[in-house]
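Re: [help] complex structure
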Amino acid sequence: MKITRRQLRRIIKEQLQVEMDANQGMDVTISTMGPGGYDGEELDFMQGSLFNPADLLKMADFLDAAQKNPGAELIVYEVD
Amino acid sequence: MRITRRQLRRIIKESAASSLESLFAKGAPYDTPDRIQGAIVDIAKKTPGLEQKIRKILGPAQEDGGNFFYYLGQHLNLVSRSWALGSPEWVEYASNLIRQAGIEEEFINYKKEYPAWAAVHATPPADDPARQPGDPVPIDANTGTNLAVDAMGTDDAVDSISGDATDPVFLRQLAGWLQQMDKNPAVQMIMFNLG
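Output below.
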């Protein structure tokens, strides 16, 4: 995925200035799976970091949308 | 059949006991130490004197730096190494701790304050025939999703927040909290603990 200069500036701006530390990886991938669950079709997905306030808001919206998705059978939440 | 007052009191007491014990069984909302830890820490924030009471019940920890979250984690993790999670011993230990602290009601009601979390985690698995159309979509994670975040000052935590990382309500609260802590000059570092 190509990131434009404008997107990069926005990403940098959203990063917090204070130092962060964690007991494990904080990168999250969330997938909305259709009928069949793990073996079903991936209807939608997103990636973000629990460190990043903008990503947290996107995750919240994504999870709300996944709950409203009539085809969703399972939400897979993977932390790396 | 007529029930005496005494029998009624016993039935009520047994019913309350089983509802508390059921929270710690395998697959139940509080089947891991971190979930119990998160709930107690949150309840303690709203209950004056509870932290001191629990410290008195459990005794000193090796290292906690005055931070209640880490203190409680040390004790619960130590016990969970001796007894398998969900075992009768673990259930008894956790139930006794909650009873001695006198927060049975608060603990049972705690998850009701987080409806999204409670709804999702109470949902039967996707392939469970009991699942009905309109039920919340279950979430499966590759790790525990209880997230505790501490904003650390020079010597101690300035502020902390905890909740379930799959709960949209908590994620929005965390986003706002992080931005606030970023502007707080007393905060040196933000520590995340997910489990």
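Chain B touches chain A through 36 residues (CB under 8 Å).
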